Amino acid sequence: MASLIIITALALVSLTPWLSMIRFSELSEYKYESTKVSDLGGQDEAKEAELSEPRTGGNGSPSWIVTAKSDYSTDDDEEMDLVPTAHGPLVILNEPRWDKPRSLRGPDGTILASLDPKTGAVRWFRTVRPVVDIPRSNESVRGASEDWQKPDAISVSADGEYVALRLETQPSLSLDDSDSPRWNADHPPKQTILVLSTKTGEVVRTVETHGVVLGQALTNNDLLVQTSSTYRPEGGEITTYSLSSPKASGNSWRSTNWLVGATARGALLSTAPSKAFCNSAICVLATVTVHNPATGTVQQTYDRVMGIFPAGGLLRLPDGQALPAAEDDAAWDAAPREFIDVHSGARIDVSNLLIGTEVAPTGQAWLFHDSDAGDRKAPPPSSWLLVGDHSATPRTEDLDVVTLTLEEQSTEEAHKKGFKDSTVHIERTTLTMGSGG
Description:
Strand content: 35-45%
Radius of gyration: 24 Å
Largest sheet: 7 strands, antiparallel
Shape: globular
Number of strands: 28
Mean pLDDT: 81
Oligomer: single chain
Number of domains: 1
CATH architecture: 7 Propeller
Distance between the termini: 73 Å
CATH class: Mainly Beta
């Protein structure tokens, strides 16, 4: 039977050349998916995509709750996000193929829903295809440098007015064991980056990139993208694209360091990838520089950096302080450390503190947790700072935050097929500070 099918297919190809082209396009591993952005919608369109209208909680409950029903592949838990913006949280979820049989469903595009920070109602709603290229923690690329990590696909400007979304590479890449991807000359891979206004949902700029994307970032006025022919900055370049002149060509400059973020008016580059960190087992101190986004000129330098946090936060070992001995947990816990807000230059003593982030109703907050909170995996925060607050004094009153959690409801049969029915909860609630503030 299989032989008959093959012979019949070959006969059709020989009789109709145009059909052979279609068959090749469909069966080839190199297949482009065109970028598609839906029209702007609102609560009605969100409801059709299984995003509920907000409901309020009772006393002691969240201020509002929004839920979304979705099918997720069993390894796609991390293909969702909650993005802080100046106009309310932006929910990013996989869009399932509802018209397909359950066993064939999978993410077809990405849902974008901007929520009103006060009520949870949908301010604007869109879908984009291909999906946003959110990296998964278990994702690796064969042939990549050990230093290389898939960069974040979502960037927010310091003022929260713009969001940049990098879509999945088109077509799929063919990789060998070398340090360079093996491109097909007839099907050069590309990635599309969309910049949207977080206020209106309108597309501000669209950029197509070629090669390996090492990083992306947004200032209040520009999109910066770092690309390379390898998985390292050497031999690559950083291109700056104006948001106020969306038709203008990008301006490129070279750097041997990694693009790890941006301030309101500058690009942040590091001698180490953005997810590099220090702990008692291993520590490599990095140097972080702030650059003019148009020319690449260095404006500021921060040495002895131990960690890089979202929204321009740096964890630094103070001048004159030696690194504690490896594996000496007590010495590491007691070591002096300072937290630097690169936007304002404010420095905060964070010795004996752990640092985290949360989405606030109209922005983002850095949280400071006591590191001596016993064996608890998530000690309550003792204080916080709003990103962009320009204050060097952490606040200790309770903080309103917006959270996204996934509740799995899969059956054993669905799990065997590689899918699970899940409910996503987006809630505005109050985070109570611990007693250590």
